[in-house]
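LAB NOTEBOOK - FOLDING QUEUE
OPERATOR: T.R.
BATCH SIZE: 2
PURPOSE: Compare the predicted structure-token outputs for two unrelated chains run back to back under identical settings.
PRIORITY: normal
REVIEWER: second-year student, initials M.K.

ITEM 1
FIELD SEQUENCE / FIELD STRUCTURE:
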Amino acid sequence: MNHLLKLPRLATRAFSTTTKQMKNKVPDHQKIFQADNGLPVHIKGGTTDVLLYRLTMTITLAGTGYSLFWILCACQPKGK
């Protein structure tokens, strides 16, 4: 039962130490994403964003094609 009484103190200590060590990266990201360099916002983050965008579009198009294929198969009359 004694360890339950120490839990709030340990949780407060754990969260307060990690927030002091972290650097705020928001201003750096704001500079990158608000820069007027002619790029769409979904690829301003660099190579990782471009790869994630292309992967997402590939999965979306493949899923749409697969769904349309099965809809086409479902609407065909069954042969006897």
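ITEM 2
FIELD SEQUENCE / FIELD STRUCTURE:
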Amino acid sequence: MKKKLFVLLMMICVTIMYPQANKGKYNAINDYLTVLVKDTTKTIVIVKEKISPNEALRLFSGGKLNNIPFSRVNGIEERLGGILEPLYKENDFQKMRKKYQNDANEGRSYFAKNTRWNSADFKLKTIFYETFDTIIFKRGKGIPIYRYTTQMIALSEPMYYKGRKYLVIAVGIGDTTPIGYLNNYIIIMKKINNKWQVIQRGEKYWVD
């Protein structure tokens, strides 16, 4: 009986703590959106699908998703982008990779499996939520649902780095024009004076 009661109490604690943990991480995203969206009265479009953790890890590391260390020249890593040393540490990256890496979403490796954003995750009220396929369809058909200057943002689920010291978020920025595209990069955030702030931005890796 005591064992069943203990298990029940643990389940209740996890149920309560899990949304609180997400709320903390999503506060970081909302803090960053206040930087991206200067005019909070303007409509923006959030891609419903979350950028996959695999893509976020690639952006962070500069292109790799394995446990093979980068080669070094004169003690400096040969990397094509991502987060730079000294914030990037191979051992810390590998811990994060093992925790968050998952099987690629078949045919849609850019997006995570079965996870989507919803209105409860964001504080901005002037947000439309669209699936990526719907956005592409509207582009292709030229349907003027949004103004052509409407900002479009894709985001990953935040990942903890170096314990809970930092948050890692992949970001894709574009617009809803017919020729629009997503410019991808990674950000590292740290809580400073009780507010999440970007301390480093890593540009997309490029492969020749």
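REVIEWER COMMENT (ITEM 2): The radius of gyration is 19 Å.
FOLLOW-UP: none requested
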